[in-house]
Specification:
Number of helices: 3
Radius of gyration: 32 Å
Structural class: alpha+beta
Strand content: 25-35%
Order of helices and strands: HEHEEEEEEEEEEEEH
Number of strands: 13
Helix content: 10-25%
Length: 258
């Protein structure tokens, strides 16, 4: 009876620990890795699709207004059908709304920005990147911001979503109107959406990207075909066997002729 009294609480504790660890293993199965090294990320993922927005006819110092979603079917003042790759869309959140996206020419309002960033058109909106391919697990983009009054400097929150629009990873990155901040995302599961939002100046700057690479991880090389080549000793054994066979045949012939 003493053993039952002493060990029953211990058994309950062990069972509780096992259940807790099992539950933790289920909830922590997804893994997203963020990278700021553009060269290394692209070297590790050489076959990604690449999209920029330089095809938009926008003069330097100005902007052009686009309808959301910006995707392969876009047909407005910014893009014609086919200028945006299939499998990706850029949308204001909440949205999509007409005239809710912008493409900027170089050096808009003294921002010293490069030509071609795509941003939202409303300060209150955030920027969604939506993926439709089920094998999208690698995404890399150059992010930044634009301010209507001059150079922009902000902190951007990057949220990564998976199946069922579940949040599977997030990070924060410093961005500016120079659009030099690279964010690489490597996920163990499908990426369905990435949301970008300014966290310091959400009411004076709009967030966006200069370009983006996306797709599946690189295909591993095929396994090498292994061919068994006889070693020198094996060749010797083969030669010996052939010689013995030849001597055997010769002996049989002599017996028959004898």
């Amino acid at each position: 009876m003493r053993k039952a009294v002493l060990y029953t609480p211990l058994r309950v504790l062990v069972s509780t620990l096992i259940f807790t660890l099992a539950a933790f293993g289920l909830t922590a199965s997804a893994q997203v890795i963020f990278s700021s090294d553009e060269a290394q990320f692209l070297s590790d993922n050489p076959d990604l699709d690449f999209q920029n927005f330089l095809s938009a006819p926008v003069p330097d110092g100005t902007f052009v207004v686009c309808n959301a979603p910006v995707d392969a079917n876009s047909n407005d003042d910014c893009f014609t059908p086919g200028q945006i790759l299939p499998g990706i869309a850029f949308i204001d959140n909440p949205g999509p709304d007409p005239g809710s996206m912008l493409v900027f020419g170089a050096d808009y309002a003294l921002n010293a920005n490069p030509r071609g960033p795509l941003t939202t058109n409303t300060f209150a909106d955030t920027f969604d990147i939506v993926f439709s391919a089920s094998d999208t697990t690698r995404v890399g983009f150059v992010a930044g911001c634009i301010d209507s009054t001059g150079p922009c400097s902000d902190q951007m929150t990057v949220q990564v979503f998976g199946e069922g629009d579940a949040l599977i990873g997030s990070t924060s990155v410093a961005v500016s109107s120079a659009f030099t901040s690279f964010v690489g995302v490597t996920s163990e599961e499908t990426i369905t959406r990435i949301n970008l939002s300014d966290t310091i100046n959400p009411l004076t700057a709009v967030e966006g990207i200069l370009n983006i690479s996306f797709g599946a991880p690189p295909t591993p090389p095929p396994a090498p075909v292994v061919t068994n080549i006889p070693t020198l000793s094996e060749w010797g054994m083969i030669a010996t066997a052939l010689m013995l066979a030849a001597f055997g045949l010769l002996a049989l012939r002599r017996r028959r002729t004898a």
